[in-house]
Every structure is written in structure tokens, then in C-alpha cells.
């Protein structure tokens, strides 16, 4: 079955406003089935989770369906899916718990390629514990972060390595399985920021070798929150602060207070929406339908990216900083003698949304020599089409003239 982008676009009410959205790395638009699931959850009886009254059963079902959907999406176990306010919040929570066992002289490895949400929580936790922070450097010329750059920093005192599954700034996809093998050989844990990766790649946390994996459903058509995936048996070893009467069961011991059931229902709907974008038969399991969908999404985004990159190469005065061999359809651009923020505002006047900045990937932007300003980020999403790309390219050509 051919990927029909016009059918996909018809499912997004926000696109009727006419904006060409290249801001997907910061958050995608929301399809109608996700909006409907949010509303439907609130229009039926809804109570604190239980097994007796309709509202209790409804809440319990929503939570179970959410965990199963995210487990299918990530190749994880439902009992290891943790809801959080954001991926940043979840990373801070896990860093505080893990660092309770760190001692002075222990070591933590972070990468310059990462969003600050996968750097600062670990740097701050290490500081409190007296642990040493080691920095894995990516090559600014190629955008690559080789596994060897991480492996060279590992010692018998390494307790944790934090690395991105894909850079939200330049799209680089490090070889996580190779990194995981080195990390585990050293006896350390691996925390992967999968926020940008999950929007574009069929994730398998077991194959990746991630001990902890975080993602954000609002980057793949869902509502604004974060998700942590980990092995339930690993979560069982962690003792976060919690209220005495609240459950000590995993994963609930990490989820403080009553869950936002309508948000969980919408997230399940977002996963199901993605699963419908491929060619696998309806009777196939959700995991297989997701595999097919990500293959279709990848082919569509790759074709648009090829068109975009060829055209950019013919424009004078543009530097593309996204150069890694394996990367998402995300480009960071700077302009000779011109500010990226001016390009953002110029494009906005013609209804093209390509934002400018460092997007919390502060260390990466500085390592590229772009300071705190970064560049113009162009991120492709499954609902982008050739008309969007042509409007972007025409706008950039006008800006450069």
C-alpha cells in the first residue's frame, strides 16, 4: 500500500490553518482520533481506579491499555512503563534515586550531543554524590558520536552512561546497541533519551540495550507528557520517595498522585493512529502494524529529505550541520552573514514554521561553534508533503536574496 500523505493530513484539524509545520521535533500536531479519545475518556463515568463501579473500571482499563500500547510501541513490558509529567521530570526522578547509591569517585558519562534533559540531571546528581562527570564528545565536522568515544571513558567506577537515541538538534543517531554492549561490559547502566528517536524509528528497547528509555508522546501525535520504559525487575530495585499509603507496586511506586486518565487514553490513541499508517493487515498484532507503519513513515520522510537536501545544496550561503550517516529527517541550518532567528521570522510571515534556536541542546550547539544561538531547525514529520517543502525552499530563497 502506498503511503497516502493527503489522507494522513486530513486527520489533523490544525493543518487546516494553512501553516507548513517543520517544528515536529518540538512537538507534532494532533490528529482527530487522539482528540476524540481524550474527550471520550472524560464523557464516560470516571473515578479513582478500581474494579467495582463503572467509573473505577473505566479508569483501570485506561491505565492498562496505556501501558500495553506503550509497551507495543517500544518493545518493552507493560509492567515497566511509567507515566511522568515530562521526560525531563522522569530523568530527574531516576537520577535522584540512582545517585543514592553513588559514592565519591564513582563516575557518570554524559554526551555533548544530548538535550540538556539528559545531561543536567546526571551532572547535578553526580555533584551531590561527589561523583566524577566524564564527557563523550561528538565530531562537530561529521556530527558522529562513535561508540568508541563513549567506550574510551568507561572504567570500573562508571555507574551510568546517558546518551541520546537521536539528537534533537542535528538528528544524529548514535549506535546505541554498540554503546550498550560497552556500557554493560563495564558493569554500568545505560539511560537513553529516546524523545527524538521515537518519532521516527521503530524502537526496540531490548535490542537497543537501554536499561532506561524515555520518550514524549507529544512528539508523535499524543498529549504533553513523558514515558519511561525499563525492565520491571530493575525498577523493583529502586526505592523512590513516596507517600506511605500509596502503593509500592511497580510501576505505580514511581507515579505520584492520581494519573490523568484522559491523557493516557489519548496516548493510547496516538499509538493506534501510528499503527494504522502502514500496510500490515488489520488482524496483525499492534507491534507488527507499528513496524510496518514506521517503515512507511521512514520512506516518506526520506523522500522529502532527499528533495530538501538537494535543493539546499544549490542555495548559496547555507550551511547544513546535520551530516551524520545515520540520522533522523532533521536539519540544522545557518546562513552566511544572516541570523537564523531572522530566517525564522521571515518564513513565519509566509506561513512556514521552522523555528530557530539551540532547543535545549546547549552543549551540542556550543560544540558546533554556534554558541547559545544554534540555527534554524527544519524537522520533517509524517504529515509534511511536497507542497510544504516547496514553500520552505521558496521562502529560504527569498530570504537569502
How does this model look, in words?
49% of the residues are buried. The chain is globular. 39% of the residues lie in helices and 14% in strands. The protein is α/β, with parallel strands linked by helices and 401 residues long. The model has no long low-confidence stretch (mean pLDDT 98). The longest helix has 28 residues. α8 links the parallel β6 and β7. α11 packs parallel to α14. The chain is built from 14 helices and 13 strands. A 7-stranded mixed sheet has the order 2-8-7-6-5-3-4, with helices on both faces. A 4-stranded antiparallel sheet has the order 9-10-13-12. A two-stranded parallel ribbon has the order 1-11.
What is the topology?
Layout (H helix, E strand, L loop, with lengths): L4 H5 L10 E2 L10 H12 L10 H21 L6 E4 L2 H12 L8 E5 L8 H10 L2 E5 L10 H5 L6 E7 L11 H10 L3 E5 L11 H4 L3 E4 L10 E5 L1 H4 L25 H15 L10 H28 L4 E3 L9 E6 L4 H9 L3 E2 L2 E2 L4 H6 L7 E5 L6 H15 L1
Parallel strand pairs: 1-11, 3-4, 3-5, 5-6, 6-7
Antiparallel strand pairs: 2-8, 7-8, 9-10, 10-13, 12-13
Helix pairs in contact: 2-10, 3-10, 10-11, 11-14
Summary, kept brief:
With 401 residues, the protein is of the alpha/beta class. It contains 14 helices and 13 strands.
| Largest sheet report | 7 strands, mixed
Write the H/E string, N to C: HEHHEHEHEHEHEHEEHHHEEHEEHEH
- Cα Rg: 21 Å
Number of helices: 14
Mean pLDDT: 98
Amino acid at each position: 500500500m502506498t503511503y497516502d500523505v493527503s489522507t494522513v493530513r486530513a486527520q489533523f484539524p490544525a493543518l487546516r490553518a494553512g501553516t507548513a509545520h517543520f517544528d515536529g521535533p518540538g512537538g507534532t500536531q494532533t490528529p482527530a482520533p487522539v482528540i476524540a479519545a481524550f474527550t471520550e475518556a472524560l464523557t464516560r463515568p470516571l473515578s479513582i481506579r478500581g474494579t467495582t463501579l463503572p467509573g473505577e473500571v473505566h479508569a483501570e482499563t485506561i491505565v492498562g491499555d496505556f501501558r500495553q500500547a506503550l509497551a507495543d510501541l517500544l518493545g518493552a513490558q507493560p509492567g515497566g512503563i511509567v507515566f511522568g509529567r515530562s521526560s525531563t521530570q522522569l530523568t530527574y526522578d531516576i537520577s535522584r534515586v540512582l545517585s543514592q547509591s553513588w559514592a565519591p569517585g564513582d563516575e557518570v558519562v554524559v554526551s555533548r550531543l544530548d538535550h540538556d534533559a539528559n545531561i543536567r540531571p546526571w551532572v547535578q546528581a553526580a555533584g551531590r554524590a561527589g561523583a566524577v562527570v566524564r564527557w563523550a564528545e561528538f565530531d562537530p565536522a561529521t556530527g558522529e558520536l562513535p561508540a568508541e568515544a563513549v567506550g574510551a571513558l568507561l572504567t570500573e567506577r562508571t555507574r551510568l552512561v546517558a546518551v541520546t537515541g537521536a539528537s534533537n538538534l542535528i538528528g544524529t543517531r548514535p549506535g546505541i546497541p554498540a554503546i550498550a554492549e560497552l556500557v554493560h561490559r563495564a558493569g554500568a547502566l545505560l539511560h537513553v533519551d529516546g524523545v527524538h528517536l521515537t518519532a521516527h524509528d521503530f524502537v526496540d528497547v531490548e535490542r537497543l540495550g537501554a536499561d532506561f528509555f524515555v520518550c514524549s508522546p507529544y512528539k508523535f501525535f499524543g498529549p504533553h507528557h513523558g514515558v519511561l520504559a525499563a525492565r520491571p525487575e530493575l525498577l523493583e530495585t529502586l526505592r523512590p520517595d513516596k507517600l506511605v499509603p500509596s502503593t509500592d507496586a511497580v510501576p505505580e511506586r514511581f507515579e505520584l498522585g492520581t494519573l490523568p486518565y484522559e491523557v493516557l487514553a489519548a496516548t493510547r490513541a496516538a499509538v493506534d493512529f501510528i499503527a494504522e499508517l502502514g500496510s500490515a493487515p488489520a488482524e496483525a498484532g499492534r507491534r507488527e502494524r507499528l513496524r510496518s507503519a514506521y517503515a512507511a513513515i521512514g520512506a516518506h520522510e526520506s523522500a522529502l529529505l532527499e528533495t530538501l537536501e538537494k535543493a539546499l545544496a544549490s542555495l548559496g550561503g547555507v550551511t547544513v550541520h546535520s551530516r551524520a550517516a545515520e540520522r533522523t529527517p532533521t536539519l540544522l541550518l545557518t546562513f552566511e552573514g544572516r541570523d537564523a532567528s531572522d530566517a525564522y521570522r521571515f518564513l513565519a510571515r509566509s506561513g512556514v514554521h521552522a523555528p530557530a534556536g539551540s532547543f535545549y541542546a546547549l552543549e551540542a550547539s556550543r560544540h558546533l561553534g554556534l554558541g547559545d544561538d544554534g540555527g534554524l531547525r527544519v524537522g520533517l514529520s509524517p504529515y509534511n508533503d511536497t507542497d510544504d517543502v516547496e514553500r520552505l525552499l521558496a521562502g529560504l530563497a527569498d530570504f537569502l536574496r
